[in-house]
Amino acid sequence: MDVLSDVMRTVRLNGAVFFDVRASEPVVAQTPHMSVVGHHLMPGASHVIPFHILLRGHCWVESIDSGDPPVEFFEGDIVFYPHGHGHAFVSRVGDRLPLDLDTYRRSDGQPMPIMMNLSGDGPSGLRFACGYFGCDAALFNPLLEALPSQVLARRPKEGNHIEVDLIHTAIVESEAQRAGSETILARLSELLFVRVLRRYIEQLPEHSAGWLAGLRDPNVSRALQLIHGQPSQEWTLEDLARESGMSRAIFADRFSRCVGETPMRYLAKWRMQLAANMLEQPGTAIESIAEKVGYRSEAAFNRAFKSIVGMPPGAWRRSRVPMHS
Fold it and tell me: 259: closest CA among 206, 229, 223?
């Protein structure tokens, strides 16, 4: 079981809208918090993640509301804002211009990527692509919970940066209005997200904590694979410890320190995420959902769901109908 892929699929990470931005010095390009514009960019998504790839030139990336310090942004670098924080690309740290929120209102049928030219008084030379992921963050998203406010992936020192080359290709195709270009852009964005996450995981310090660090720990990762691969199994702490090659006490301590949840609490929360997705499917009986996520009775499932979500599954389903009707 590929745990990262399972989480991305279950929280419905999808698609991307692109801006292809060309700019002249001095550059000032500001992106507001996704709570302000995310619903325009990815309609229907409960959470929007912006990302940017510098295709040509050099500038600074400056956080607006996350507290991250300014960082230099070089050709081939990629930056993500997993929690949707606002940020700016500038030639001079601190420069700002008034926001034009109309920029983010996408018209029906508007071709992707949207071309933008930012004209300063100086020479041209900066170009970057902007993308946006939509995902479900309504209940339990261990991936989002594990990520910092800003994820920066530097271009590898050696070899080609295939993501940048592919983005160049996709933008060229889109400019030529070839069939399927928007689908290509969406799939490439998902590939970028996974590759950047993989690089981030590999670069974590040895004794890091958090869900992503758990994916790298061979014992904890084994337990996560079992939970995600067989969520309806009647797992006990002893079962997971044995399958992970550790004693009960050592396993419980390592899993909790690494992931930030006890194994059984993590299992219960993941089951509720799966159940919440199924509750949004019209006509699916709650008793059937309870069985699929490992509960022998509907009453036991109802108690567990209310304990974690704060309301019974029937009330959760009714609360979601307007969003998915």
Answer: 223
Q: Are residues 188 and 56 in the same domain?
A: yes
Total domain count, the chain: 2
Q: Which of 173, 202, 231 is the last residue of a domain?
A: 202
Q: What is the pTM of this model?
A: 0.81
User: Which residues contact residue 86 at a Cβ distance below 8 angstroms, ignoring those fewer than 6 apart?
Assistant: 30, 31, 32, 33, 63, 64, 65, 66
The enclosing domain of 122 has a CATH number of 2.60.120.280
Among 195, 201, 199, smallest CA distance to 167 is for 195
**215-233 pLDDT, tens per residue?**
989 999 999 999 999 999 9
Q: CB–CB of 296/288 below 8 Å?
A: no
> Do 116 and 92 share a structural domain?
yes
Which region among 191-195, 215-219, 320-324 has the lowest average model confidence (pLDDT)?
320-324
- Does residue 285 register a pLDDT over 70? yes
3-state secondary structure (DSSP) of residue 51: strand
Residue 283 has pLDDT above 90, yes or no: no
Domain range for 231 is 211-324
